[in-house]
Amino acid sequence: MHRLIVVNGHPDPRQERFCAALTQAYVRGGKTGGWDASSVSVGELALSSLQCLAEGDQPDAAAAAMLSEIEQADRLALVFPLWFDKPPAPLTTLFSRVAPRKAHIVVTMDMPAFAYRSILRGPERSPMLAVPGIEPEEPVLIGCVSSISLEQRRDWLETLREYGERSRFGSAVVPSRVQAFADMIDRTVAQLWA
To answer: A Pfam family matched by this chain, by name (predicted)?
Structure first.
């Protein structure tokens, strides 16, 4: 059975965080799709573990176990919040020790997603996807995350479950209807914005 690992990159691992819920929805979908799917949470690493990684020292047992799970995954997905236009430092610190590979990226942000999506289509890549060693596949941008309704949150959870379910080994991630609609709106707004 192929292994799918979904990384919750939020430094706060509490289950009430939206990134944690998105991560678990992706894992549920992966299991439905026939994967041996599970998650790891960067926020569960102690500060001393992260400092050890940042200084280039030997990883402690917790960091080594998380790195091993990530390395053994056949397919990888990352869910993280955008902080000051880039991924959280603990996530980039952990992935500085991961061999280069492709991953499906899901980014939550307070700004409207279309503003960042237009940057991704331009000649310069945004630092928001700059996770060391990761080549992003089909980035999903969830904008205005602090103000979206409960119904919109449920829609996003269903979208992430669908992404997990459709994560077939060796095939690209297929966007859901919600994501396809978001892309259409983003393209329209970007054209009007220019």
So the answer is: Flavodoxin_2
| Per-residue 3-state assignment (H helix, E strand, C coil) for 6-30 | EEECCCCCCCCCHHHHHHHHHHHHH
CA gap 188, 193 in Å, rounded? 8
Q: What tokens appear for 58 in the block?
A: 């030997």
Supply the pTM of this predicted model: 0.84
- The amino acid present at 39, given as its one-letter code, is S
**Residue 159: DSSP 8-state:** H
Q: Which residues have CB under 8 Å from 187's CB, separation 6+?
A: none
pLDDT tens by residue, 22-72: 999 999 999 999 999 999 999 999 999 999 899 989 999 999 999 999 999
Q: Which fold has domain 3-193?
A: Rossmann fold (3.40.50)
d(CA 49, CA 38): 21
Residues facing 136 on adjacent strands: 103
DSSP β-bridge partners for residue 135: 102
Cβ(20)–Cβ(13) below 8 Å: yes
Q: Which amino acid does the sequence have at 15? A: Q
Spatial CA neighbour of 81 closest among 5, 19, 157: 19
